[in-house]
From TrEMBL:
Carbohydrate-binding domain span: 36-240
InterPro entries, alphabetized: Carb-bd_dom_fam9
Domain of life, per lineage: Bacteria
Gene Ontology MF, one: hydrolase activity, hydrolyzing O-glycosyl compounds
Coiled-coil annotated residue ranges, if any: none
Record-level GO BP terms: carbohydrate catabolic process
Pfam families xrefs: CBM9_1 (PF06452)
Protein's organism: Aquimarina aggregata
Name under which the protein is recorded: Sugar-binding protein
Amino acid sequence: MANTSTSIEPTTTTRISTKKDHQIREIKKATIVPKLDGNMDDPIWKEVKWYGLDQRWLGEEYTVDDFFGRYKMAWTPEAIYILVEIKDDKIYDQYKDPLTLWWDDDCVEIFIDADNSGGNHQFTNNAFAYHVALDGNVVDLGKDEKPLLYNNHITTKRVTKGDVTVWEFEMIVYDDSYEEGKVNDPVILSKDQKLGFAIAYNDNDGSKERENFIGSVFIPGEEKNLGWINADVFGTIVLKE
């Protein structure tokens, strides 16, 4: 997320995929739904592998003492589950209003594209870039170009012990038919379904602005802060049993 603006993509009824699949990862189905308690002891978390949060999208070089991150994933027909472990020497939350400069506080950012089509989503619901704050508030930009709370899309539990924080997320998936203020049916997830996905961490150790933005997907070129605008840069997850 950044505080700049680009043109708005026109709304279309038929979306042509612009994305080339990359970082393709198979995600295992959970037989027992993970309990959101931040304890990492659910059966599914013992079965699936860790992936790294290790791509520097913004900021200067950092040391492992300053930041280390990794995550796991699972799914059920109703939701995607994400376990994140962050080692951060300072947790910082300067803005109590969840809709004020939300990207400059420590937060996890989850990117999801229900049909894996890629393309512009800055002010559309073609994809979502959910910023999950330390207090659990979930923010993204709406079609009116203003920040909105999407707390009914993601539920989270966060537990911090020393400099290690564990987050567990339950994310209900919505596609580009989602309309704010209306009744929306979530996507029912199924075997072999492909979704665009990335995850990142905004790290701020006490500055006015975030100091690092660290993601899960390699983005070529000099400009890497693209996920909040363009879903082409998301990786691809494939749901497996």
